[in-house]
Amino acid sequence: MEQTNKQTENTIDVIDASSRKDFVLERLNKRNKDRQNYLDVKLEQRSKETQQNEGVDFFAQSFNQRASSLEQRISTMQLESGDAPLPDLSKHFANITIEIQELQRYLTSSTMFLSDFKIKSCQNMLNALTSACDEARQRLMPKKKFGFSGKKLAVKQKQPPPALSKVDGPEKKKTAESSAFTWTIANKHKAHIGHPGSVQISNANQCTLLCGPVARSLFAEQLERCTIAIACQQLRLHSSRATRIYLHVTCRAIIEDCREIDIDVYNYDYAELEADYAASGLNKSQNNYTDVADFNWLSPDVHSPNWALLKDHAAPNWSAVRRDFKSSCASDDNVIDVKEASII
Fold first, then answer.
1. What is this structure's pTM?
2. Residues whose CB falls within 8 Å of the CB of residue 114, separated by 6 or more in sequence, listed in order
């Protein structure tokens, strides 16, 4: 009996030892697997950081080289172009302007991985190049002064003042192919603008801009209590307040000297929207409306107090907005609804 009990105890000890061995091996394997996963995550993170740093370094080197080259060409032109004929000067200045615009597009397409400080410093360099080019053009190619001749001039009839909500630009009726044009809207009050190509807005108060897809950008300044619905490649907003923007932007929105700016996703809709997206070349599935760079707020850890995303806010009824506007100005022939004029 004692021998049987001893054999049983030995068997239990063997089982316990085997169980402990399996348990220890399982813990070691799990620890090794967790350690390997941790190393893989760190390696992937380091690889991403390296790629991003390499992209930023490459951009900085390329941008600085191109900007320095343009600056040197402008300086050289001012020193050596004293005897150059005007056609050659005009051609040189046109080429420099085109290269500055290409450098601006390069900066715009790279804003996704650049810091706000880097974007602002590069934009300041571009502004300085543009100013230097304009000053050199005015100095080397001054405009001719006009004088009055002795001939009697015919008295012109006094023209009526322009309509309050007319869009600055050619009076010729444009079609959907006019997306290559830039339309400028300035000094408007309670105006209703339709679907221009690329847009520049200045000094607008209580205005509504309903805009389809734009191939290039929206530049706006001095807006107050306005509502904008637009799809574009880039948005730049300056010196504005109390303005609401329904936005689709494929690169990045930039604001400066602004406050009380509300932003929500682009929700304007009309029958030709899909065709206009295709014509503009915008990627409908890529919308970075939540990524806003505020040049007056460079802290990456704290959200800017100058803009906010709209929350729990009902989408506007744009059809009703257009219908009310048309009915309010139906009796005024001088007020133009740009959508009816087929300006895209």
1. 0.51
2. 56, 59, 122
